[in-house]
Amino acid sequence: MPSQSVSTPRADILVIDDTPENLNLLSAMLTEQGYKVRSVTKGSTGLRGATAAPPDLILLDINMPEMNGYEVCEHLKANERTREIPVIFISALGDVLDKVKGFAVGGVDYVTKPFQVEEVLARIENHLTIRRLQKQLQTQNEQLQQEIHSRQLAEERFTKAFRSSPNPIAIATLEEGQFIDVNPSFLRFCGYSLEEVIGHTATELDLPSSSQTLAHIIQKFQETGSLHNQEVEFRTKTGELKTILLSIEFIDIANVQCTLLIANDITERKRLENEFISLVSHELRTPLTSIMGALDILGAGKLGTMSEQAQKVLSIAISNTERLIRLVNDILDLERMKSSKIVMHKVKCNAADIMVQATEAMQAMADNSQVQLIVNPLNVELWADSDRLLQTLTNLISNAIKFSETGDTVWIGAEVIGEEETGKRRLGDTGNPLSTSLRLPFSASSVCASNSLLITVRDQGRGIPEDKLQTIFERFQQVDASDSRKKGGTGLGLAICRNIVQQHNGRIWAESTIGQGSTFYVLLPLPSS
Fold first, then answer.
1. How far apart (Å, rounded) are the C-alpha atoms in residues 109 and 14?
2. Phi and psi (nearest 5°) for 287?
3. φ and ψ of 71, to 5 deg
4. What are the tens digits of pLDDT across the range 89-146?
């Protein structure tokens, strides 16, 4: 026996009429059109059926025994379960008053007998369509109300967290960079009143401690779309410098793109950390000096001749002691720079002389590693601390040699770039300039002067992963944790370089391709003529 496909009915229609002939006619007509039809001859029976299984539409006669159509309709409309079912009256009563009463008790349409089949079908389809649209609208309204309720709860939770958070939090427009709301902790942190903050940028309030740091923040935020726990220094209304961990995220407020800035004040923690590092470093120097002196005496043979094995052990001890002394010196150097205890002695100096001196200082190391150094010095005057710039370049060249293979080349070059080119490169993003529409509540417009010197140190080494290009300038950060053992570095060199360059109102950054090498850039302002 072949299977028969059962199609889904177009709609469920209940017909209430005390005349069997009318019921049969309507049932056959509607069934033929694909509707499911239920037929009853009494109003009370129809009410029970509609309540038990609400139909999509009801066709209702008026003149019926026991309960007429008007009464049936009134009961339907009084019941919450059947209230929304559309009712079409089909009656031989054609008087206007009869029709008016039908609409008054809740009917949606009125058809007089004898009726035209096409007219009845058209009216049924229209009201079923209206009912479907009403259900869709009702469902959408319910969903919207739920979404509104959920959003209100979320906003209430956010507002409570925003206002009561012990961390300074601010919201600024993305386009203009103006503060539109800040929490009480932010006001206590910066010392300004709400009226002084709203509508202004951080730059206008003089909150940033340096334009270079903010340039780095803008670059990192642009690259990732968010920023997490970036250590920066901010200045309060009274001029006090505070160290914070800054996090930034995009948020949408009433279709306005904004930035959410969350700060964690670590000023006291940093002070204690710096004091501890400084204390420990100073305390280490005295015993290290004694150890180094003792090792030198042993190495000079003043206490007797040593075996070959003893000389190897002594060599290892001297090498590691020298490394520890370098680490202590680097820590002290960096801490003095950060606390402004080291003053840059700026004088007129020549960039070519510094580049040549740095190359000559590193030539022996390059020869031992069989790495070729190529320098293209540029004869241009700088207003700078030549010793500190020499320290920076020798550090960069040293790193380039360390991470080069035998036979590789390291290039040192320089060029003068104008205002337009400086604008493209000053954030360290030559390949992807910062969009002018992307702003934070601070400005990076003063990163460098209009004319600048760009020094580059390029190698053919293993390269630096993209996610490490910023962290390598932090303290104790290296591309590979094993580098400190294999290459002998302290993880502080680049942090010292960055500090020196920043104190010259410059910018340092790196670009790299894995397996092809890295390029370090130092951008320095030139004195105005």
1. 15
2. -65, -30
3. -65, -40
4. 998 888 899 899 999 999 999 999 888 888 899 999 999 999 999 889 989 999 999 9
Q: Which residue has the tokens 């009869």?
A: 98
| Nearest one of 445, 443, 448 to 200, comparing CA atoms | 443
Compute the radius of gyration of the chain from its Cα atoms.
Answer: 41
Q: 233 and 242 in contact (C-beta within 8 Å)?
A: yes
> What are the CB-based long-range contacts (under 8 Å, 24+) for 337-345?
337/496, 337/499, 337/500, 337/503, 338/274, 338/499, 339/274, 344/384, 344/385, 344/388, 344/500, 344/503, 344/504, 345/385, 345/387
Length of the chain: 529
**pLDDT by residue (tens digit) across 187-222?**
999 999 999 999 998 888 888 776 656 666 777 777
Q: Check residues 482 and 502 and name the one with the higher pLDDT.
A: 502
Tell me the one-letter amino acid at 443: S
Task: Find out whether 85 and 59 touch, Cβ atoms under 8 Å.
Answer: no
Instruction: Please confirm whether the linkage preceding 114 is cis (ω < 30° from 0).
Output: yes
pTM: 0.46
Q: Which DSSP letter does residue 471 get?
A: G
Torsion over CA: 304, 310, 312, 314 (sign): negative
Nearest-angstrom CA–CA distance, 121 and 127: 10
In the block, tokens 């990076």 appear at: 444
Residue 356: beta bridge partners? none
CA distance 397 to 527: 25
Cβ atoms 59, 16 nearer than 8 A: yes
